[in-house]
Amino acid sequence: MVRENEIRSGEVAVPAPPPTDAGLVFIGSIRTPWTSRLETPRQGRTDGPVCRIEVFDPWVDALDGLEAFERVEVLYWLHLSRRDLVRQSPRNDGTTRGTFSLRSPVRPNPIGTSIAALDRIEDGIAYVRGLDCLDATPLLDLKPARDLFTPIAPPQPGDFQIG
Ligand code: SAM
Fold first, then answer.
1. H helical segments located in 70-144
2. On the chain, which terminus has fewer CB atoms closer than 10 Å, C or N?
3. Cα 66 from Cα 8, distance rounded (Å)
4. Does ligand 1 come within 6 angstroms of the Cβ of 53?
5. How far is CA 64 from CA 27, 121, 123, 131, in A?
6. Does the Cβ of 112 fall within 6 Å of ligand 1?
7. pLDDT tier at 160 (50, 70, 90 boundaries)?
8. How far, in Å, is the centroid of ligand 1 from the Cα of 161?
9. CB of 60 closer than 6 A to ligand 1?
């Protein structure tokens, strides 16, 4: 069940430190069709609407080369989330689970991640499908999807020498 900022039966909030945003730099803005959390998808789907990731100056040149990847990983700051719940009730039925066992937007550092299908990049804007955030959600990072990279082989005997 989608939440606004309410506390549900059984949930536990803690006196969280005041947010400082940890020195992160918002490098763009994500433009989506959704203006209410109640209507935003819980997880993005690659058959969802095309959304625009607008990268701010001076970061536009950092997009160069990303067009070679069909899937991109998008990291964003779920800026309207409360950040003080350690236990949450996803079904709002009085039963609760720890925050780190959930993909809820409510977390001490409200970072959202999605793997999105890249449609194209034009004039500093990446057009993607597969997001689940409100319009004007701040962008933290963009990178090629991790599943497009071959894992590095485990170390073999003799690869390292100590001393
Ligand atoms: N896909 C990401 C993940 O797994 O890390 C986010 C998943 S989270 C369940 C998606 C929900 O966060 C949306 O359905 C909406 O209710 C909420 N949401 C989206 N954008 C938000 C924002 N900017 N601030 C606060 N909540 C937001």
1. none
2. C
3. 42
4. no
5. 15, 9, 11, 21
6. yes
7. low
8. 46
9. no
pTM over 0.90: no
User: Residue 126, class by beta-carbon neighbours within 10 Å (0-12 exposed, 13-18 middle, 19+ buried)?
Assistant: buried
Tally of domains within the chain: 1
The Cα 55–Cα 32 span in angstroms is: 14
DSSP states of 9-34: TT-EE--PPPP-GGG----EEEE-S-
Query: Is 157 inside a domain boundary?
Result: no
137 lines ligand 1 (CB under 6 A): yes
**Calpha distance 60→140 (Å, rounded):** 13
Residue 15: per-residue pLDDT = 87
Q: Is residue 163 part of a domain?
A: no
| Cβ proximity of 162 and 97 under 8 Å | no
User: CATH no. for residue 124?
Assistant: 2.40.30.70
Q: For residue 52, is it within any domain?
A: yes
Please tell me the number of Cα atoms within 13 Å of 13 on its side-chain side: 12
Mean pLDDT across 80-98? 96
